Amino acid sequence: MSSSRTKGSSSSGRATPARGNTCLNCRQAALFLKCDGQRPVCRPCSTSVSYGDCEYPELGGGMTRTQALEEQIAILESRIQQLEDPGNPGGAILLAQPYASSAGSDLVVNEGVSELSTVVQAVLQNSTEIGFFLHPSRFIHSLSSPHQHGRPLVALMSCILLWGSHLYASKGVNTILARALRDTAQGLASGHPQAVMHCIQAERAFVEAKYHTSAAVSIALGAQLHKTDAPSHALALPPPADTVEEGERINGFWTVFILSSCWSAVDGSPSPFPYPSSPDARVDVPWPLDIESYQPQASRPPGRGTVQRFLENQGDSGTSTLALHAKASILFTQVSRIVQGYRPGMNQQQSANFFGCYNALQTAIESFTAKLPPPTTSATAVVTHSLAHAAMIRMHAPFLSMNPPSRGRMTGSMRALVRIIDAVDIPGLPVVDSIIGMIWARACQVLIPERPAAGSELARVLASILSVMERMRARYPVINDQLAEVRAAQS
Asked: Is the distance from CB of 219 to CB of 252 less than 8 angstroms?
């Protein structure tokens, strides 16, 4: 429904919309005359940190898109209950329609999956950004399986619901989170034939909890997903049925690898995938493809010493969105490891060893960044670029006072971060990996001790980063926490 302005004006001279074209936030705050009806965000909402998303009634009955999605989420919750209790008699579930305008409008949901399509499709449309690595067509088909073990694990369905509630800011997110936590904790003991992969996928839903990242890593390593030819093990999976199933395992591993690498880099914890590594810990799976690129009859892609070959600047075919994201996370982690090894006063041999590794890694970062396609509206591409630039900033930050070229490289990478912020409406993306808040915070923490002069380029860089963090703090708790740390450092 398009927004038509009235010809009347307020005392300030602004055109004001008819009452029916006022956004929901301004209606609830009785700001009919202040709301300008501008889309996608009206003026009061754009200047407020306390309002939710600026929305207008879009559907019959005065429902917004978010309200319609909340209705679908309620249906999905009921479906999960049905999965948990398959012996419940009756093929239909009676639900109250939460946004019905009149009495007697209960909704009968027949057993099946058509009613769940809105939530599931919303999740799958953002699969790259949220780390959903299962094959989408097969996943959708499994929802309607007549066999309980043919359907997705209950824990995974709970996490699909959790993803949907985050995407559409459902008011019941805390209840949904509690259910997802409970179901995920019980997932491996379910006896489900896909319990390992579905539990890893479910753990990925808790993106802001280090514990769940560690749990996903433990399951992945226990199942030997970092090895194409895994030895016998308690959690070892049976041979994949075809290349598509093997592709799910490959992509599942790299999804966990990225999470683990980024967390290790930002909190200084040891990486479970060190480099150089022992043969047991070495990553011997190929770079991931886009999940739809795996074909049932295709040959197995090769993979041996994948991370090692990349860091040694050997050529490879890892150009998918997920592969580039993984490579950026490797560089980000390696910089943290190498920089921590620097000590003033190193002897000649120690210094030669350090700067040999340092210069090789700098070359790898420059080569990788030069080949990256430009960031678009893809949140994953934005994060990939940001990780690469953050790696260069982290690499040169310790040497700003002693090495003028380091200052120039740091400034260039800061400038590149801001170009991304200027080119892409990052706060407007449906979902963004919250690691980007940590990247921005560390860039700010490099800049703040420099005390950039007002109006200088570095001052503008700092202001741009703080501005975008301010806009995203309400949706992302990690970004909110990082912004508070930056503000504290400033004061």
From this structure: no
